């Protein structure tokens, strides 16, 4: 479902963030992306949701050829994937329910469907009882669960997470990882950039290590492999 | 797996965009006020200018249409020669009408047009020094000069007189003030547009997180743009309300006043309707255009969608 061929990315300031990446990720896989800061993890991930365009090479996601995809059609791509960030990116003036519903409202879904789908998703992440609260009244872990709910409410085949446990304490991180496991068990592909050594070494999945814009290691059931 | 992006807008979406745009108007408070005021001032000037220009043009046209050519007939001409001259003038294709005005009538007109001072000319009634005159009107006022040239070549036409200069002077005055007014208005239009674009920029910055999330979850670019377009448009339309009311009211009284003053004169100003509706429509459209233009500038610069 994801295929990168000889992908290069050079930023305007001369930094080379991807230097010949070749990778294939199948539907339903759970992949950790690890590597030192500034090694190109973020670029690798951003190219998947077309936040960055490669300077060379080809990227195919769900059969969509990203380098041929017109800017106008990017929304189409994004409706088929969910993205989760370290800083949650929630709207503070909206309730938990509204934050999740937002993702469906702006793609003009039917209100009845939205209500049903949002409640189902909140139940999945264990926040149904807090649907009417504001994100600021909730803990960091709960806020991240809202953001996960928002990313999967549209039933995407792929969820991309950029350090989703980066701002959370160890105990909360496990809760969040459990949710990702559940989502993955339902057949959704998960690609997660992370610095969390313990998580990677405990919940074993495929590990792709990126250094200097290249994939230096790609193991099924791999180790984190870095100190700290 | 692929889902189509929905392009036709649902009523729900229209309602959502409208609500969002009004929320921004309220949230931006003083910037909204400043933008609307700038549009208001600009459009009041546009309205006043437009009303004056259109009326001056109308007046100039009606004056132009009343330009007559006065052909002074040679004193020595016999009645037969005078008739020949009349036939020759009538034969000129551009000529509309020819009226004979004997010198006695001419003197009476002169005396009465001078009022009390005219009495001095009564002495001439004994020995009238004036010429008999043919009053010629052209079919199209623009042909006046051509006709004058042709008549001047005819025999027994002693002098040919027409409203030399007056119409030309009026038209050049109108042209001048039109140019000055246009420069002034363009300057004001840009100021108003700049203020609106700044207001929209504030909205975009205030909502950048929302916009970021919309883009992430796959909202179309148009879905993201609409509320900003609408906000700009409302600013423009709100700014056109006072100018429309002011121009309509002022023209109403000016019209009543002038129509009484001009009664009996061939100078006419434009009727209240439909002129006021035309001006109001123009102001409304201009307001909306300034608003949308301002928001487009900001959307292009800051939204990048």
Automatic annotation (TrEMBL), chain A:
Entry GO MF terms: ATP binding; ATP hydrolysis activity; transmembrane transporter activity
Give the record's keywords alphabetically: ATP-binding, Cell cycle, Cell division, Cell membrane, Membrane, Nucleotide-binding, Transport
Keyword match tRNA processing:
no
Q: Does the keyword Protein transport apply?
A: no
Query: Self-association or partners: how does it assemble?
Result: Homodimer. Forms a membrane-associated complex with FtsX.
Please state which protein family the record places this protein in.
Belongs to the ABC transporter superfamily.
Report the protein name in the record. Cell division ATP-binding protein FtsE
- What is the source species? Niallia alba
């Amino acid at each position: 479902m994801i295929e990168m061929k000889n992908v290069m990315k050079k930023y305007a300031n001369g930094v080379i963030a991807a230097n010949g990446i070749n990778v294939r990720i199948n539907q339903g896989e759970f992949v950790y992306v690890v590597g030192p800061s500034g090694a190109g993890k973020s670029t690798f991930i951003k190219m998947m949701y077309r936040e960055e365009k490669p300077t060379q090479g080809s990227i195919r996601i769900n059969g969509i050829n990203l380098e041929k995809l017109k800017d106008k059609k990017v929304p189409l791509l994004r409706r088929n994937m969910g993205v989760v960030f370290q800083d949650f990116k929630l709207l503070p003036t909206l309730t938990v329910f509204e934050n999740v519903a937002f993702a469906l409202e702006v793609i003009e879904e039917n209100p009845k469907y939205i209500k049903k789908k949002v409640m189902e998703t909140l139940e999945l992440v264990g926040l149904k009882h807090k649907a009417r609260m504001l994100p600021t009244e909730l803990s960091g872990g709960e806020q991240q669960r809202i953001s996960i709910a928002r990313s999967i409410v549209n039933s995407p085949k792929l969820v991309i997470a950029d350090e989703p446990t980066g701002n959370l304490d160890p105990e909360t991180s496990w809760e969040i990882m459990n949710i990702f496991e559940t989502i993955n068990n339902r057949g959704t592909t998960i690609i997660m950039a992370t610095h969390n050594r313990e998580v990677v070494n405990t919940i074993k999945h495929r590990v792709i290590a990126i250094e200097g814009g290249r994939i230096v290691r790609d193991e099924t059931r791999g180790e984190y492999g870095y100190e700290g | 797996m692929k889902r189509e992006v929905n392009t036709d807008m649902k009523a729900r979406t229209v309602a959502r965009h409208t609500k969002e745009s009004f929320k921004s108007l309220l949230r931006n408070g003083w910037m909204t006020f400043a933008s609307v005021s700038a549009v208001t001032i600009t459009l009041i000037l546009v309205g006043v200018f437009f009303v004056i220009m259109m009326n001056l043009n109308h007046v100039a046209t009606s004056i132009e249409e009343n330009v007559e050519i006065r052909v002074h007939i040679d004193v020595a001409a016999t009645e037969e020669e005078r008739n020949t001259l009349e036939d020759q003038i009538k034969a000129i294709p551009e000529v509309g009408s020819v009226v004979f005005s004997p010198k006695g009538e001419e003197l009476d007109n002169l005396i009465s047009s001078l009022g009390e001072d005219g009495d001095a000319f009564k002495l001439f009634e004994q020995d009238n020094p004036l010429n008999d005159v043919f009053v010629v009107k052209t079919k199209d006022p623009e042909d006046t000069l051509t006709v004058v040239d042709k008549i001047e070549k005819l025999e027994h036409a002693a002098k040919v007189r027409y409203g030399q200069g007056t119409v030309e002077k009026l038209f050049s005055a109108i042209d001048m003030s039109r140019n000055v007014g246009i420069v002034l208005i363009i300057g004001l239009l840009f100021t108003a547009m700049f203020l609106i674009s700044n207001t929209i920029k504030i909205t975009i910055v205030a909502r950048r997180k929302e916009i970021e999330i919309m883009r992430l979850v796959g909202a179309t670019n148009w879905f993201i743009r609409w509320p900003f377009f609408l906000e700009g448009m409302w600013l423009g339309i709100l700014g056109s309300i006072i100018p429309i009311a002011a121009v309509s009211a002022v023209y109403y009284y000016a019209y009543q006043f002038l129509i009484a003053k001009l009664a009996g004169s061939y100078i006419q100003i434009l009727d209240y309707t439909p002129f006021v509706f035309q001006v109001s429509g123009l102001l409304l459209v201009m307001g909306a255009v300034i608003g949308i233009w301002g928001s487009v500038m900001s959307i292009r610069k800051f939204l990048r969608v």
